[in-house]
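Checklist before submission:
- one chain only
- standard amino acids only
- sequence pasted in full

Submission:
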Amino acid sequence: MFSRRHLLISSVAGVAALAMPHIARAAVRRFRLGTVSATNSAIGIASDSFAKALAEKSGGTLQVEVFHASAIGKAVDLVAGVKDSSIDMFSLAVDVLTDVPNTTKGLVTPFLFPSRDAARAAFAGKLGEFGLRSLSGTGIVGIGMYENGLRHVTARMPVRTPADLAGLKIRVPESPVSVATFKALGANPIPIPFAELVPKMKAGEVDAQENPITNIIAAKLEGMQTHVSLTGHTYSPGMFGLSEDVAAELTAAELAMFREAAVAGMKASHAESNQADASGLGFLKDNGWTIVDDVDVASFMKAAGTVHAACAEIVGADVLAEIKSLAA
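Returned file contents:
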């Protein structure tokens, strides 16, 4: 049975044969990777670092072209494209993955980790392996995980406790877990693709949003938002997903190169997040933002039980229990 990828390849084979010598075609293979994030975000940098590492590890025979900022589709389009192999790869925050198992969605449950270092260790180890395996049977092969960042709330006022969220129209990713989280915290969550955040905010459809620092900078929300409240409510992991049909065309050695390149992407995302911590808040402050660093973390942690109960209804109590065990 031919995949859509095979049909696409067949349809251009005659033209390619006239345009390129056989040896050149065999020597270099090119892959399209789509993401919805800006080039200067942790995801954008992880994606570019992945492409660079794969080219180096393969001696230039495996080339990835990265399409940033929804250039070839929103998250839903990228996931569907990888599944039907019309797109080779995606690089997406787990928060925005659509049409994937609830097991995968559970990876963005808030209040799972005592620190960013603990989250990084978990996703570089057994929790990351669990996350990649969760895509089995979907038409997507999980190649590796990396860091999108700690998610914080921005608004036109400080958010120090869950009570400050009451009734607030807040943009969240198109994730049932994110929606359940902010409903449990008393807000009015509105799922919107990242590419539509600014126009929806300008139109007054949302009052607030939540994202990692690098995404807040990339979104350029100055004039629409005034306060960054360092809630750190969710550690947001990202994932490299490869079309199952594409993976089947690779040798074991080539697939290993993809996985090794994903590790390079993960390390680059960590470095970018560290840089955001070191200088990103200063950049935002210099651009008129008020940094709210006296968030009552204890009050948010006290709400974790209610939030986890809401998330368990989405992903399943047994799945959440396993994720919490691996996170620990």
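Reviewer check: The first helix runs from residue 4 to 19.
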